[in-house]
Amino acid sequence: MVKVSSRDILDILRRFELADDDNIPRNIESLKMSHPRPINTLATFKYNHRKLFVLFDDTAEDSPSYVINQIHDKSTHLNGELVKNPRDDMLEYAMKFKGKECYLFVAISDKKRLDGELAKRYPELSRSTWQKHIKAGHVSVNGKVADSVKYEVADTDDIAVSLPDAPDFSGDSLPIIYVDDNVIVIDKPVGVLTHAKGAINEEFTVAEFFRRYTTYNLDTNRPGIVHRLDRDTSGLIIGARNEEAANLLQKQFADRKTKKTYYAVLDGHPKLDKANIDLPIERNPSSPSTFRVGSNGKNALTRYEVLASNERYSLVKLQPTTGRTHQLRVHMKYLGTPILGDRVYGKSADRLYLHAAELEVTIPGGKREVFKSTVPKEFVGLFPDEKISL
Fold first, then answer.
1. Cβ distance 176 to 210 under 8 Å?
2. Closest CA to 193 of 213, 209, 178, 171
3. Domains and CATH numbers, the chain
4. Is residue 230 among the annotated active site residues?
5. Are residues 253 and 259 in contact, defined by beta-carbon separation less than 8 angstroms?
6. Half-sphere CA count of 285, side-chain side, radius 13 A
7. pLDDT of residue 199
8. What is the per-residue pLDDT for 277?
9. Strand 80-82, strand 95-97: pairing
10. How far apart are CA 342 and CA 172, in angstroms?
11. Helices assigned H by DSSP within the chain
């Protein structure tokens, strides 16, 4: 019987020129010993993310078939190759080590990650989309559900895909403020997504509603979309009904030629009744799905005006010049007066008290339009003693 350590295995790898002096014993992982026959010893381990075997056997007589049979006795269906001895012209594979002959076998896996294999077989869907389907339990391998994207499969494995039918949103609708041959404007309720976050769409969105009215981006999950509102924000969204209209609208948003007016209820009172907030906004590295005011961020400008207040809240008019993600919510948080109901930057309430009430934009044909949405009654209802004109 042969006893070997990680240091011995590393020495053997160096002799076979698979390792150098920069490697250390802890690079040898999961070392296990077994005995395919009473006369030999097999060391199994991992090195550089590969599975390797060293067989100690003085009776092998440099026979590849014999050595491979000993290894297969412990590991069936194993693909790989014997490493040739680079030091001895007399022995093609055997290497003398501490008075014993040893053989090095490197396994070559023919398996691939399930998500990558699906993307290869069905290129009409992206790898990230297949990852979502796998996690949702829509993929089986050899008759069993595989819910891990790292599941490994071989070419011979039977992969079955059972994708759910697309949801039927034909009975769902949204309030239309305006529609012509080029644009559509809707009044988005609280809780409705602007568009699905991925290819798997399980809920009704503004984009799905626009799909009935547009030819723009129909092959994506964002048909008709040229700008967005957060799920918890209500109010106006304009959509493009064709590519020409989309280009015109997107350029106006990018060039800051649109004018947007929001109304919000703040938890607290700003120090000033009216001001411009000119502070850059960056992604929060400790919570990548959120944002914050930071010197490395993109410039962001918000004008605000307090319209009413009481002991707890302030009703404000907000006019963002830029359109950074979460801009109004982040700027109000920075003032120490987060928007009421902001679950991310403030405290929960019955809703997020932020409403996109006015949108001024030039539509195809050159006409400048101002679209309006009524401020929800619950906003004004928090200030029963105030006379508010919106």
1. no
2. 209
3. 6-107 (3.30.200.20), 112-161 (3.10.290.10), 176-254 (3.30.2350.10), 256-390 (3.30.2350.10)
4. yes
5. no
6. 3
7. 59
8. 98
9. unpaired
10. 27
11. 6-15, 64-72, 114-121, 127-135, 206-210, 243-254, 327-334, 377-381
Give 77-98 as a DSSP string.
Answer: T--EEEPP-SS-SS-SS-EEET
Residues of the chain with pLDDT under 50: none
- Residue 43, phi then psi, degrees to nearest 5: -100, 125
DSSP result, 269-332: --SSSEEEEE--EEE-TTSTTSEEE-TTSB--EEEEEEEEE-SSEEEEEEEESS--TTHHHHHH
* Alpha carbon of residue 29 to chain centroid: 32
Structural contact between residues 123 and 88, judged by C-beta atoms closer than 8 angstroms: no
| pLDDT given for residue 76 in this prediction | 57
The one-character DSSP state at 360 is E
Decide: 123 and 98 in contact? Cβ < 8 Å. no
Q: What is the pLDDT of residue 97?
A: 94
Q: Supply the pTM of this predicted model.
A: 0.65
pLDDT at site 130: 87
Q: Which whole-number Å values give the CA distances from 19 to 47, 48, 93, 98, in the listed order?
A: 9, 10, 17, 19
- Alpha-helical (H) ranges within 16-107 are 64-72
**Cβ atoms 276, 229 nearer than 8 A:** no
Q: How would you label 350-384 residue by residue, b for 16+ Cβ within 10 Å and e otherwise?
A: ebbbbbbbbbebebbeeeeeebbbebbeebbebbe
In this structure, which amino acid lies at residue 44?
Answer: T
The catalytic position among 8, 230, 232, 342 is 230
Task: For the sheet with 139-141, list strands across it.
Answer: 144-145, 139-141, 159-161
Return the CA Rg of the chain.
33
pLDDT for the residue numbered 368: 97
CB proximity list for 23: less than 8 A, separation 6 or greater: 10, 13, 14
The residue type of 339 is: I
d(CA 168, CA 317): 38
Q: Is there a contact between 199 and 129 (Cβ–Cβ < 8 Å)?
A: yes
